[in-house]
Design brief:
There is one protein chain. With about 750 residues, the protein is of the alpha/beta class. The chain contains 26 helices and 14 strands. It is globular.
Length: about 750
């Protein structure tokens, strides 16, 4: 399905499911979820104008965005779908202050959106003691999806204890109007069907994976109904659902300073599973506690083998495959800068690269006979900790190949040919260990004709993080080669304090739709941490939720319009409907500033690269008027934060993180404004009073960053992260407190 024509509002439709009860209906159509029309053309105004207009009550409906209401409107009339995953002990709640929510609106709030869904003109009165019928041989005891449904129903004082536990009814009598889980071998592995009418609920699947997906959807559907003083009445519904892409993953960068605590990772796994994500990767460079790697991992708080095994078990319980990810060619500077391994480097003397302030070696030399034995030692300690049969070996951004010891070999053929030969040898190591090799495909795609020479079982991960990245061309080349491939968009959170909302939305949407058209195995959304991992966790949430939605249902055309509501309902658990829009609006500050920065935001680089002139490409598009508008935008964007009513256990932490992100961005914007007022002067040339004020702000922000860090991250990495902020101190001269 092609992109929607700009400015053309799709008509509201009701999905027709011909012969749904028999399930084997005609699948040739392209039905779409019922949705609301697009917003008024005033939405096309600049972001700052949109924020200002939201303060005018009569214009709020025009500015809320298509398919959703403004935060204020949601707070007055929203039904909240409280959370049931993670560590929250406060359970489900529902808040209704307005009229009844329409069934079509409830359908639009399911995340990820079902592929086929239809409102039924019936209601199910759920009994207080809900009977459940489970197929013989299936056990759902301890299932996270079952726990989700139990918590959701408990809000309505309904008991639900499957598998013959006390208080359950494994085989309710005919006509009991209970929940029936049934085997449907005609469905695909992850597919499910869900029907709700006056006779009860029937959930069909061929596997327990599909059954879990359906249970999560049912739990959300229950949560979308307000709590009644008497019996719960669920609106009728018919769903036939299956994913667009088989592999739907999230990759966390744990190499760039911020390594999440185990508690943080466990909570994230539970939230991702509820959104039907089924793969997780932790990107590592020197972040596993290798027995021989003390020099490389010193001060980094690496993960132990026991911790990885615990995380792997937790992922399995939640239906997620934890895929090992260890750089195996480039990005090995943490190892190669030390004497025991320096001789293996392509450029042992070192070179300047974007991922460190030091001049140091970066990649292994592909022609050195010692490179493969080094990798074997890494693999043989790391891989036994994972149950997955896949392994992402990285192999990306080897930009120094041919600049050092392999120069002669590259001159005889090409750098890409030398790269391909080394890739083949790494593939052999994995084949010997029974693993399928995943690798980032940027180097091989420089000569697309070489794709046909890739090992047949290898999977190329095509990555790109800008809104206009040419996924279509890259995936078409990979598809024509006959090799397997996946697509990797990004959260657009890194090299920023507040994210890049519009870039994130366009990048992920393009990747998901292209991947589906070209027959990709899946989608892996990457959350990088370049230059200090200074963005807090909430800034990455829009990318995670949108990727989950579109990897499951790539044809759904209302995802970006529903995203704020999905964030409120299923990520931030905000009963007031505020936090989703706040996070998205923070990420629009770069648009307000007029910047055209790639791979980051101008406000970020004004802080961590304050020595750059304003003529640098990082600051293109900035002028005094736009930075003034960005300043005002930041002052207003958190105005509604005090109205948020998140039921997450870490709600106060989320508020503090968002406030810190806003204040860091404000520091960068204000530095830019001051420099422009000074005729485009350098930061060090600002007057002493201005530098003193900025120095005080910097010191206070560094203190807050240090204080918030332990709440989600391990101690190793904090000093390195702070160093990126503190690089501003020399530009502020002797005025900067130490």
């Amino acid at each position: 399905m092609g992109p929607r024509v700009a400015g053309k509002a799709p008509e509201v439709k009701h999905l027709q499911l011909a012969g749904f009860r028999g399930r084997r209906h005609n699948r040739s159509g392209e039905p779409r979820l019922a949705r609301t029309p697009h917003a008024h053309p005033l939405q096309a105004l600049v972001v700052f104008a949109r924020i200002s207009l939201r303060r005018v009550p009569t214009l709020r409906p025009l500015c809320a965005g298509p398919g959703r209401r403004s935060p204020g409107a949601r707070a007055r009339g929203a039904c909240w779908c409280g959370a049931w995953w993670g560590n929250s002990q406060r359970g489900f709640r529902s808040h209704r202050r307005g009229g009844a929510m329409k069934t079509e609106e409830r359908i639009g709030r399911l995340a990820p959106p079902p592929r086929r869904a239809e409102a039924r003109h019936s209601r199910w009165q759920v009994p207080r003691r809900l009977g459940v019928e489970i197929p013989a041989g299936w056990s759902m005891q301890g299932s996270p999806a079952i726990r989700a449904l139990q918590k959701s129903l408990a809000r309505h004082d309904t008991q639900f204890t499957p598998d013959g536990s006390p208080g359950s009814d494994r085989s309710p009598a005919r006509g009991a109007r209970g929940l029936r889980l049934h085997l449907d071998e005609g469905l695909a592995a992850e597919a499910y069907t869900l029907e709700i009418d006056e006779d009860g609920a029937r959930l069909g699947a061929a596997t327990q994976v599909g059954l879990s997906h359906g249970l999560y959807t049912l739990a959300q559907w229950v949560g979308l109904h307000p709590r009644a003083e008497r019996a719960l009445h669920l609106e009728g519904l018919a769903i036939e659902d299956a994913p667009s892409l088989a592999e739907r993953g999230v990759m966390l960068d744990v190499a760039r300073d911020r390594r999440p605590t185990m508690e943080t990772l466990f909570d994230l796994v539970a939230r991702l599973a509820a959104l039907k994500i089924n793969r997780l990767q932790l990107y590592m460079e020197a972040d596993f506690a290798y027995s021989f790697g003390g020099l490389a991992t010193r001060g980094r708080s690496p993960y132990s083998a026991g911790e990885i095994r615990r995380l792997d078990s937790h992922c399995i319980e939640h239906g997620i495959e934890l895929v090992p990810n260890q750089q195996s060619f480039g990005h090995l500077h943490h190892w190669l800068r030390h004497d025991p391994w320096r001789s293996l480097a392509e450029v042992p003397a070192g070179l300047t690269h974007p991922f460190s302030k030091e001049t140091e070696p970066f990649s292994l030399c592909p022609t050195d006979p010692g490179s493969l034995p080094f990798l074997e030692r890494l693999f043989d300690e790391l891989l036994p900790c994972f149950s997955s049969s896949d392994f992402n070996v990285g192999l990306d951004e080897t930009f120094d190949i041919g600049q050092g010891r392999s120069r002669e070999a590259c001159a005889k053929t090409s750098a890409q040919r030398v790269y391909l030969d080394f890739l083949g040898r790494v593939h052999g190591l994995l084949t010997d260990r029974g693993k399928r090799m995943l690798f980032f495909g940027d180097i091989i795609q420089k000569e697309p004709e070489l794709c046909a020479e890739l090992p047949a079982s290898a999977v190329a991960m095509s990555w790109g993080y800008e809104a206009d990245h040419p996924f279509e061309d890259e995936l078409r080349h990979l598809a024509s080669s006959g090799r397997k491939f996946a697509v990797c968009p990004g959260t657009s959170s890194w090299n920023s304090f507040v994210g890049r909302t519009q870039n994130c939305l366009c990048n992920i949407e393009s990747a998901a739709r292209t991947a589906t058209r070209q027959g990709a195995l899946g989608l892996l959304v990457c959350d990088w941490g370049d230059r200090g991992h200074l963005q807090p966790a909430p800034i990455s949430a829009p990318g995670f939720v949108l990727a989950a939605a579109l990897a499951w249902n790539a044809e759904f055309e209302g995802a970006t319009e529903h995203l704020a509501t999905w964030l409120d309902d299923w990520w931030f658990e905000d009963a007031a409907g505020v936090l989703g829009e706040v996070v998205l609006e923070l990420g629009r500050n770069g648009e307000v500033s007029g910047e055209t920065t790639k791979n980051g935001t101008a406000g970020f680089f004004l802080c961590i690269a304050a020595d750059l002139p304003l003529t640098d490409e990082h600051f293109e598009g900035l002028d005094s008027a736009s930075l003034d508008a960005a300043h005002e935008h930041l002052q207003a964007v958190l105005a509604d934060l005090g109205r948020a009513r998140s039921l997450r256990d870490d709600a106060a932490l989320v508020d503090s993180e968002l406030t810190l992100a806003r204040d860091l961005q404000s520091l960068g914007v204000d530095l830019g404004r001051a420099r422009l007022r000074g005729g485009g002067c350098a930061t060090s040339e600002l007057d002493s009073q201005a530098r003193a004020r900025f120095a005080e702000r910097l010191a206070e922000l560094c203190t807050r960053h240090r204080e918030l860090w332990p709440a989600r991250a391990r101690p190793g990495g904090l000093t390195a992260s702070l160093a990126w902020l503190e690089a501003l101190r020399p530009q502020l001269g002797r005025c900067a407190p130490r």
